[in-house]
Amino acid sequence: MHPTLQKPEAMLFDLDGTLFQTETLLLPAYHATFDQLRAEGSYTGETPPESEILGGLGMLLEHIWQRVMPGVDEQVHRRADVLLLDHQVQGLERGEGRMYDEVEATLKALRDRGIRLFVASNGLEPYVKGVIEHKGLSPLFEGLYSAGEFRTRSKVDLVRMLLETYGVQSAWMVGDRSSDVEAGRENGLAVIGCDYAGFRKEGELDGADVRIGRFSELLELLPKEADKANE
């Protein structure tokens, strides 16, 4: 049983590992990126293990490449930015990538309850907006915020900017990484930790108010307004 939290005005969602099964799009693009880097002569050696990039999800992209390719020239990292994004966008256009189970139905149910929905992601703008648009979810969201678009240095700053811009007074931060927990805590939000992606390190969600094992459990955390109305 989960505790019932106070109904928020809005919910802010991380994208990768929260709404979107990132590996279903990322890993083919990751291998294609390194194939192209080698073909261009800007990288030699084997493709780093998939665990390196999956373990970096939730970080800013520049920090991900420092983890995946330490000691490699920054120009190669910036070229990898371009290639990875291109391959992911092409994959989306081919219909690749999957949302987690019940994401669309749950988001619609939250909207029906009058909750405003937003995305707050450390990803690049074309990727974040591309995933939501290609999966047909754009009409459900009031705003899609990405570190790539707003050049924020942390998710704390990104979330603060979103809350101020849209005049949100109460919200839940929903995500799967320590950056989501920090962003929620630093901005005075309830934090819902998504415990189903498996990309994080042990202890990353320790600061969350509640952990959920499937996305649809969000609905169980809300007060039963419909039940009261029928009494």
UniProtKB/TrEMBL annotation:
Gene3D superfamilies xref list: HAD superfamily/HAD-like, Putative phosphatase, domain 2
Keyword Hydrolase recorded: yes
Keyword Cytoplasm: no
EC number of this enzyme: 3.1.3.18
GO molecular function: phosphoglycolate phosphatase activity
Keywords: Hydrolase
InterPro entries listed in its UniProt record: HAD-like_hydrolase_sf, HAD-like_sf, HAD-SF_hydro_IA, HAD_sf, PGP-like_dom2
Protein name, UniProt field: Phosphoglycolate phosphatase
Gene behind this protein: gph_1
